[in-house]
């Protein structure tokens, strides 16, 4: 029998998070019925900008949609095979292949036919991003596409954020506003845009504060739960409804810390993970918790895919909200560009050692006992330099185990072998099973 070390209780706003997610996908599908418009793009798109077109503008971000498909193994197989039959290589992003297969099959993961977007609005840092939506545009008969390039060099603290870099991105946003007016026939509302920028900054800052609270022993949140919470940022970080939800979540997690409420009742080991998880195999996270009292406390990915942090004197800290909010379109574009260029998850696209530095800082601050690295065949971007990260973590004194898989293609993982590697790793850490 397991030993109860800490009190636990369900997360009160869990149901609300699920409702908001389903509402998002429903709103996108039904946008035209309500007289609204819809757009598609990546989770790192500057989604505050299209919000200036009105309150009836609904996005569909590709990465979470691809992840949603991947957990439905039958539908995912159909989509992946459709993409491959159309000539898309199997070593491409597995989110992309799930997404493009859904489009080819004309099936929406949440029921009905695939809802065609009115325009495509994308940001480009990963090698797949811009090309992804070029293909969507081509397959759907030439949907208008605008891509914002953010490849300006390593973000702080690994590179200097110069005025020219900020203006390079903000200038594209300003041009994009004119483009949006042209392709939609709508007048851009600066007030709505300014508010959306505020919500973007508040939501990404608040999620960082929530993750920061997980340094507590016992951890108030486990990563499997966090996967379902951070996704709202990737769906629409500029949404007021989502920004308000994160404030509510932060207050609840802070209360859990104050009262000593744990994510799992028998925490005896803390783990740092890496990259996108294999969404169809999240039972690995529950296996760790239920069999070893091992709580994955998060990862650079979970914390900072859209949570905004800074590295100061070796400490990984939530980035502070600006003292003054913008008052003009130009100021808002500059702030939005600068804020996003601090994103920690963009650093490792420029160098393996940047990711190692951030992971080691997290491992120390969050007091982890070991690290699980994912050789993610489904995402070349997040897997860049993982062998180097492994060596750097080992040199820093953190035991490491790795497994091969894919975030969105269940054909790329050996579940039995992965569990065996986990068992061997826990034995190495000296953690015994708490259940027979």
Brief summary:
With 436 residues, the chain is an alpha/beta fold. It contains 16 helices and ten strands.
Q: What does this entry look like structurally?
A:
This protein is α/β, with parallel strands linked by helices and 436 residues long. The protein has 16 helices and ten strands. It has helices at residues 14-29, 62-70, 73-85, 94-105, 129-139, 163-184, 190-213, 223-236, 240-259, 283-292, 300-304, 329-340, 352-365, 380-383, 386-395, 415-429; strands spanning 37-41, 57-61, 119-124, 145-149, 269-273, 294-299, 309-312, 315-318, 370-376, 400-405. Helix 7 packs parallel to helix 9. The radius of gyration is 21 Å and the shape is globular. The chain starts with 13 loop residues before the first helix and ends in a 7-residue tail after the last helix. The mean pLDDT is 96.
Strand order in space, largest sheet: 2-1-3-4
What is the H/E order? HEEHHHEHEHHHHEHEHEEHHEHHEH
Separation, N- and C-terminal Cα atoms:
8 Å
**Mean pLDDT across every amino acid position:** 96
Helix content: 40-55%
Q: How would the global form be characterised?
A: globular
Beta fraction? 5-15%
The largest sheet is: 4 strands, parallel
